[in-house]
Amino acid sequence: MSGRSVEADVEVVLVKAGRTKIRYPARLLANDGTRLTVRAPWAAEGVRDFGFVRFEPGDVFVEHYWRDRWYAVKEVRSSDGSLKGWYCDITRPAAVDGSGSTIVVEDLDLDLWVSADGSEVLRLDEDEFAASGLAAADPEAAARAVEALDELERLGREGLVRLLDVSDVSDVSRG
Prior knowledge:
This protein is α+β, with helices and mostly antiparallel strands.
């Protein structure tokens, strides 16, 4: 991974429709000024079964946030270190507080799942996005969100490894 490696504790705050959806501690692995990479355990209680993947206690997420892109990509590994896949959130560009200790990301409802072997690339929650009213309230943001989903879908089909430079974080994903 390019950029400065900075092992430190941070808090990730996910905001949706103006409200904090979840906040959780993470370990900052790298910050190159544009992309931040953190590692965090599955933050919700219990198991969340989407049908195509299960997130459960013991899972570890290596999360990539950009200050200049409208998405976040989360590499998901089971407790034994095996790759489950990548969960991608369409978001506004990440914001970092002045102290660098809090990363705030606004979720725009669209998501993408890419399975570990790349055979499944699933667009998710397009109905939620349509119902969110973002297209009427902020047409430019809605357009950027759809463009970001299209870009991630293309990258997912080509392989997210190039986007993430995953080979450099594979050793820290279990950490």
